[in-house]
Structures are given as C-alpha cells and as structure tokens.
Write a structure and sequence with these properties.
By secondary structure, the chain is an all-alpha fold. The protein has two domains: 52 residues; 214 residues, MetI-like (MetI-like fold). It is built from ten helices and no strands. Helix 3 runs antiparallel to helix 8, helix 5 crosses helix 8 and helix 6 runs antiparallel to helix 8. The relative contact order is 0.11.
C-alpha cells in the first residue's frame, strides 16, 4: 500500500527524469546544430580555396571573419547596429501594441470588426516596399520613416494571432460566466486574455523577425545609417566580405531577438508552451 511519502518520492523521480530527458534533448539538438555549422563553414572554406574564388564575388569564411572583426572593433558596424536596433525596438513596441489593442476592440465589438477589418486586410495586401517610398516622403530620411514601416509590418501578425487566440476561448466557460452575470472586463481578464496569450507570443516571435526585415528594407531605400545602409554601401564598393559580415550581424541580431521573445513567452505563458515553430492554442 502506497504512502504519501512514497507517492511524493515517485512524483519527484518522474519529474527529475522528465527534466533530464528534456535537457538531454536540448543538448543533442545544440550539438547537431554545431556540427552542421562546422560542416557548412568547412565546405565553404574548402570551396573558395580549392577553386580560387575571387573575394569580390564570394569571400571565404576567414575573409568574412577578418572583416567582421575589423568592422566591429574599429569600423562602423557597431554604430549601425545600434541605429537599426533603435528603429526595430521602437517600431516593434508600438506596432505590437497597436495590433494587440485593435484585436481587443475587434473581438469585443462586432460593428468595429465589420467596418475596420476589411481595411486592415486591404492595407496588409499592399507590399511594404511600396509603402516605404511614401513614408520617406512623409517622414523624411531619419528614423521616423523606418519606424513607420516597422509599425505597418508588425501590427498585422500580432493582430491576427491575438484574434485567433481570443476566438479559441472555451465557449462553455464563457457562457457559464455570462450566466453568473460576470462583467465583460472580468471575463476578458480571467478567460479571454489567458487563452489569447500563447497565440499572441507566437505572433510576437514572427513580428520581431519581420521588424528587422522592415527596418533594413527602409534603410535600403534611404538612410544615413543602419545595417541596411551599411550593406548597400559595401555592395556599392564591391566589398563582399564587409557585406557578408553585415549580413551575419543582421542574422545573429534577428536570432537573438527571436530567442528573447520565445524565452519570455515560455516563462510567462507556461500553460501554452509549444515546440519550436508551433503556435499556442
């Protein structure tokens, strides 16, 4: 006959085994990624050396690494990274806030959904590269035009994912609360918002990557600083090693920002954790 102490011991053992298995799985995945990265870089270096590829066409990893080190230590890349990050974070914050609030209004008021939602879909159907020149005319070549493009890019995935999460709220639970005459704001805070948070963070993971892309596209079209501006400058000067170095910084920046959003989501929305690439319901 089992005792409470024995049951507790079994529970702790199962939890330890689960955590150990999860840690082993993460370690295995990371090791596989490291091995694949080493193989890709090794093949890249071998190919450029074996066939004597011109650095003006396709630089080797060593040349890219040297350029990256020189530009980070004594060049403009770090300053350009700060410029792009400022554009990305401001646009991401306001775009996400706009998408979240608009999703709440649309979900709670059917007339607003009927009138506003078609305009939202229509705006999203317009390519952002078509909006960027307009923003440059309206807001100038400074940070404002880049932030405007980031906002217009970010708010839609946050809006759609938040709406999807709200609409997946348990209908039986909603009906029960309404039967007890629960206030609308209390139903939202206690039921709808927890249901929407996993989908919201999935939208934020997508939005932060799109924010980086939007900022770089805006810098391509007109800027005096930023990683997009630097990539364009290196391309004009046929400095392919510098261009690859700037692209590497962009890739790492996007990866780190996505990882931060995912980490925060997994800690705050523990009831909706999903594997990589999945969306919480």
């Amino acid at each position: 006959m089992s005792t409470p102490a024995l049951e507790k011991s079994r529970f702790l053992s199962r939890r330890a085994a689960t955590r150990g298995g999860a840690s082993y799985g993460k370690l295995t995945s990371f090791a596989a990624w490291v091995v694949s990265a080493i193989l890709v870089v090794s093949f890249w270096q071998w190919y450029t050396t074996k066939f004597n590829v011109s650095p003006a066409l396709f630089p080797s990893p060593l040349e890219v690494g040297n350029s990256l080190w020189a530009n980070l230590a004594h060049g403009p890349l770090l300053g350009d990274l700060l410029v792009t990050m400022r554009e990305v974070m401001i646009g991401f914050f306001f775009g996400s806030l706009l998408g979240f609030l608009l999703a709440l209004v649309i979900s709670e008021f059917q007339p607003v959904r009927t009138i506003v939602y078609p305009y939202v879909i229509g705006l999203q159907s317009v390519p952002k590269t078509a909006l960027a020149p307009m923003f440059l005319i309206w807001f100038g070549f400074g940070m404002e035009s880049k932030v405007a493009l980031v906002i217009s890019t970010v708010f839609f995935p946050v809006l759609i994912n938040t709406l999807s999460g709200i609409e997946q709220t348990d209908r039986d639970l909603l009906e029960m609360l309404r039967a007890y005459c629960a206030r609308r704001w209390r139903v939202f805070l206690r039921v709808k918002l927890p249901s929407a948070l996993p989908a919201l963070f999935a939208g934020l993971e997508l939005a932060i990557v799109l924010a980086v892309i939007a900022a770089v596209v805006a810098e391509f079209l007109g800027a005096v600083g930023g990683l997009g501006y630097r990539v364009l400058t290196y391309n004009t000067n046929l400095d392919m090693a510098g261009e690859f170095a700037a692209l590497a910084v962009l890739s790492v920046t996007g990866f780190v920002l996505h990882a931060i959003i995912r980490f925060v989501g997994q800690r705050l929305v523990f009831w909706g954790r999903q594997p990589d690439g999945a969306r919480g319901a």
